[in-house]
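Help! Submission page says 'invalid entity' but I think these are all valid:
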Amino acid sequence: MKKISRVTMGMDKVSNTPIIFLQVENTNTVVPIWIGPCEAGVIALLLRNEVFERPLTHDLIGNSIKELGAKPLEVLIDEFKKDIYYAKLVIEKNDSQIVYLDARPSDCIIISLKNNIPIFIDENIVNEHGIDISFIEDENEEHIKKDIENFDIDELRKRFEGKNKKGDD
Amino acid sequence: MKKISRVTMGMDKVSNTPIIFLQVENTNTVVPIWIGPCEAGVIALLLRNEVFERPLTHDLIGNSIKELGAKPLEVLIDEFKKDIYYAKLVIEKNDSQIVYLDARPSDCIIISLKNNIPIFIDENIVNEHGIDISFIEDENEEHIKKDIENFDIDELRKRFEGKNKKGDD
């Protein structure tokens, strides 16, 4: 397993689909994972440190786990099969027993960012699907910054805060 | 607390925002709650009994709770404050202790539908925000059916399944 040192996000302009880039620690290699627009919205807000008054869906996962005396430990992205990535959310119970929960990488990455737990990815996946980004290293930050800004943050905030109408959720 | 007997969904054509209608048991009263598009997508798929191969975000909540030896018990929509509804997801631990988790109604309603647990709503909220739907009773089913169909289900499926590209989540 390889540790992920940075999570960034961009848009696949061809399919107009959000992509998460998982950078492998101490390398210039990123693994791209195409994700859904809802999960991308949550990640975009997290990467911009946006704060919400009400618990969002993934907060409810973290809060459930903690209220039941357990804690999120780490995320494993450990399989790639028929063009889909598979992940596990690893939880430690209060008796130190470890629980592995089958999950989508996007949910796991959000939980990792919210709870500050590490993400590990299978070495074979990195070898097979990793992309060397050395050639764009210099402009990388700017590029990523611009990509994140492609998400309409005001629109996203509105979606999650939902404070415009009487009787919002 | 009043029990909810039916959850349906429509679109607020003015604000182009999805609305959940919670029908109070043995009455013609519904309480409307405006929700976000992502949560609406999940609820639309649930109301149409769509099944997915991978666990979606709210499945991960249910799975976390169950793997930790607890079970979702009920949902309480118990407060309305500054134009926002507040809810609690009630969980029963394996030692019978009850845990109340602060949550948004939309997340709770999805968990209720997925886990077949009851929803209760505060009587004052029903009195203040309930709408009598007797006058549309006859065409209600058709109306609701049509509203749900306003959601582009193919688009929604694509979002959640995400099977079109290599490296999907």
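Support: the input was valid. A stray whitespace character was the problem, and the output above is from the cleaned input. The longest helix of chain B spans residues 137-149.
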